[in-house]
Amino acid sequence: MADGKARSAPRTPPCSPGDPVRDRPEGAAEVAEVSALEEAFRRFAVHGDSRASGREMNGKNWTKLCRDCQVIDGRTVTVTDVDIVFSKIKSKGCRTITFEQFREALGELARKRFKDKNEEDAVREVHHLVEGKAPIISGVTKAVSSPTVSRLTDTSRFTGSHKERFDPSGRGKGKAGRVDLVDTSGYVSGYKHAGTYDQKVQGGK
User: Which residue intervals are annotated with compositional bias (Basic and acidic residues) in the record (predicted)?
Assistant: First the structure.
């Protein structure tokens, strides 16, 4: 250049918080993993309790999470193992665990669940089992058939005034089965052809 000054190299602008993955610091991928794990924790923490905040998890939901996410395999990790770890991790006098204690508990189970892997890989495998999962809603429980209950609910066996409250199909008659309604139609009680007079008269013309 004429002025003899060397042109300085262009400087790379610093990354803003909204920039994409460029120059992502180490461990950024792990942040997404923790987020998915925490979301699963929150879903199970509020399961069955509309007043729960999602910041703490009780023992019942902890066991359900381990069962639904297949952390419990019935061989290396059992329900008993899950209960023992929960009692060990939770604070003294508390009935719930926080998310940090939850991660610690998963680490305890990871060493039992994946004995053939090193500790880091075992924890990663357990996290993958849990991440993004939600409680499994089981089907409606079927009523157990009981001869006593069947006898009490079989309307064909009812007698007296109780029998009058149901029609032959077992359907309730409503008010007609509870109150003596006066029939003002002019027909004799029990007459099978009530209401057909007009049809007969019209048919005879």
Answer: 161-170
Question: In whole angstroms, how far apart are CA 133 and each of 45, 52, 108?
Answer: 12, 18, 20
103 neighbors 174 (Cβ within 8 angstroms):
no
- Nearest C-alpha neighbor of 148 from the set 157, 161, 136: 157
Q: What is the amino acid identity at position 15?
A: C
- Domain spanning 36-130 has what CATH number? 1.10.238.10
63-114: pLDDT as tens digits: 999 999 999 999 999 999 999 999 999 999 999 999 999 999 999 999 999 9
Give the separation between CA 146 and CA 24, rounded to whole angstroms. Answer: 65
90 neighbors 97 (Cβ within 8 angstroms): yes
Q: Indicate yes or no: pTM above 0.70.
A: no
pLDDT tens for each residue of 23-77: 444 544 444 444 799 999 999 999 998 888 999 999 999 999 999 999 999 999 9
Q: Domain ranges for the chain, please list them.
A: 36-130
